[in-house]
Amino acid sequence: MSAPNKQKRSDRSAQASAVEQASAGDLRQALFREVNDQIQSLNAEWTADAEEVVLCECTNPDCQEPIEITAPEYETVRRFPTRFLVKPGHASPVGDRVIIDLGSYLVVEKVGPGAETAIRLDPRRAKARDEAATR
Ligand SMILES: [Zn+2]
């Protein structure tokens, strides 16, 4: 089996640029997750009955869209280091798989190299590591 050379080449370059984009976007997502975790930790009033505004965790560097979410919903997403909250339409076509669509926001799961970045930079994981180290 031999695919036409032209086709092969364009596949490869499309893939390479997708990886580059994903890594910058992945870092942004990890950063915004940390910001949202800060928002959460500073707000003791945030409960199941009150929606709090966090920031869209999509890969777009210019996005500052708010997402309203209750504390338990937020916690459910954060239980998975590869999951992020984004506005509808903000899921990255490369690297994000939409797993939950609640209308006002989506929960996406990182696939491919972005998933590794997401796990590596999970602030909750780092915190657990630090606590283990001081024990
Ligand atoms: Zn966004």
Word description of this protein:
The protein is of the alpha+beta class and 135 residues long. The chain has one domain. It contains 4 helices and 5 strands. The chain has helices at residues 5-42, 71-78, 113-120, 123-134; strands spanning 51-55, 66-70, 83-86, 96-101, 106-110. It has a 3-stranded antiparallel beta sheet. The longest helix is centred in the N-terminal third of the chain and has 38 residues, at 5-42. The protein is globular, with a radius of gyration of 17 Å. The model has no long low-confidence stretch (mean pLDDT 85). Residues 56, 58, 60, 63, 65, 86-87, 90 line the site of zinc ion (ZN).
What are its keywords?
globular, three-stranded antiparallel beta sheet, 19% strand, alpha+beta, single chain, two-stranded antiparallel sheet, 5 strands, 135 residues, binds zinc ion
Detail the poorly predicted runs: none
Mean pLDDT: 85
Largest sheet: 3 strands, antiparallel
* N-C termini distance: 58 Å
The helix count comes to 4
Rg result:
17 Å
> What is the general shape?
globular
Q: Tally the structural domains.
A: 1
Helix content: 40-55%
DSSP summary, beta strand count: 5
Strand percentage: 15-25%
- Largest beta sheet: what is the strand line-up? 3-5-4
Bound molecules: zinc ion
What's the topology here?
Layout: H1 5-42, E1 51-55, E2 66-70, H2 71-78, E3 83-86, E4 96-101, E5 106-110, H3 113-120, H4 123-134
Antiparallel strand pairs: 1-2, 3-5, 4-5
Helix pairs in contact: 1-3
This protein binds zinc ion (ZN).
